[in-house]
Design brief:
Aspartate Aminotransferase, domain 1; binds pyridoxal-5'-phosphate
């Protein structure tokens, strides 16, 4: 049991004592004079009914939720054992976790190209970064990442912006060979066929971070969680912002996670459209890489990707173009609704 739970139980007990005293006094005043045993039972019954309204009443958390994902999360000792819900994400609130997980000498390493915000945040916090290129087939550059000997190795899986997926067994291999922490960003994992959650339970240096922004379509909620070994979570809890996720977000996230049927429907709808969009783009000569995310990454050389991006923007269709080496020939296209995808494909057919 963690310190957080003990504190909650203590607060709950403090609130229960006056309640028991009141019940005892009231019972003594009753004409029927209930026995001590009946008074105790009555107190317990009242405690049971009033529990949710007492200070220290358990706040719903991911570990206590029903549903497939919560069940998987709760099954991991680190989650059952520590506060599973954290404010923001490691990559969003990168300062404290970086200070906790890296040092000046052995900063971060990651396979690239990857989530562009990471480089910006690393620079902001003065963190040394070594970017190792993905192999041409987008598999993990294992030896190079191990050789980088970073305190914190970041792998976004499925990766952004390529939408490609690295085998779980490769990530397990990497974690075993690393001396530092392996941070796996699973922002897009709900659209993939596998995930790395089991690794967080098996390997003490693996930290998996997730968000409700993508698979649950709740980007406005600002809710995410980290899963790792108790030691890792305890270290991060010490370094994180002292304020926790707000109660409204926890309630909304709880409701969302409990509705697994809706979640599955949402994910399946996106995956179905992803296949249709990929087929449409391939017909237009801009075949995307195999995607395991809610977007596709398609190479567009003629006309140049930058021109296609601008032509689409003129038509109020927003896709992403990264005007930087290695990425400038590609477009990152989010899977939309069937209507939106039809409009995109029709406009692209005119532009190409
Ligand atoms: C790879 C990756 N990780 C994490 C995030 C952060 O997600 P959020 O802050 O919306 O939870 C994003 C957002 O786009 C992302 O692309």
């Amino acid at each position: 049991m963690n310190a957080f739970a003990i504190e909650e139980i203590w607060r709950f007990a403090l609130a229960a004592i006056p309640l028991a005293a009141i019940v005892a006094v009231v019972c003594r005043c009753l004409p029927c004079r209930p026995s001590t045993r009946h008074t105790l039972w009555l107190t317990l019954l009242l405690l049971f009914v009033l529990a949710p309204f007492l200070p220290g009443a358990p706040v719903p958390d991911l570990a206590s939720l029903a549903g497939e994902e919560a069940g998987a999360v709760a099954a991991i000792p680190a989650v059952a054992d520590g506060p599973p819900v954290t404010t923001g994400k490691v990559e969003k609130d990168e300062g404290p976790p970086r200070r906790a997980l890296t040092d000046g000498e052995h900063g971060m390493a990651w396979p690239g190209p990857t989530y562009t915000l990471c480089a910006v945040l690393a620079e902001l916090h003065g963190c040394e970064v070594r970017e190792v290129p993905f192999a041409p087939d987008y598999s993990l550059p294992l030896d190079e990442l191990v050789g980088a000997a970073a305190s914190l190795t970041y792998v976004c899986n499925p990766n952004s912006p390529t939408a490609t997926f690295v085998e779980v067994s490769d990530l397990a291999d990497l974690a075993r060979r690393l001396r530092g922490v392996l941070l796996i960003d699973e922002a897009y994992v709900d659209f993939a066929s596998q995930n790395c959650l089991p690794l967080a339970g098996e390997l003490p240096n693996v930290l998996v971070v997730r968000t409700l922004s993508k698979g649950y379509s709740l980007a406005g909620l600002r809710f995410g969680y980290a899963v790792g070994s108790p030691e890792l979570i305890a270290g991060l809890s010490k370094a994180k912002d002292s304020f926790n996720v707000d109660a409204l977000s926890v309630a909304a996230a709880t409701a969302a996670i409990q509705d697994q049927a809706y979640f599955q429907q949402n994910v399946e709808r996106v995956c179905r459209e992803r296949e249709r969009l990929s087929a449409g783009l391939t017909k237009l000569g801009i075949a995307p890489l195999p995607s395991q995310a809610n977007f596709v990454f398609a190479r567009c050389q003629s006309p140049p990707a930058g021109c296609v991006y601008r032509a689409l923007k003129d038509r109020n269709i927003l896709v992403r173009h990264f005007d930087q080496p290695g990425l400038s020939e590609w477009l990152r296209i989010t899977v939309g609704t069937p209507d939106q995808n039809d409009v995109l494909l029709n406009e692209l057919a005119r532009i190409m």
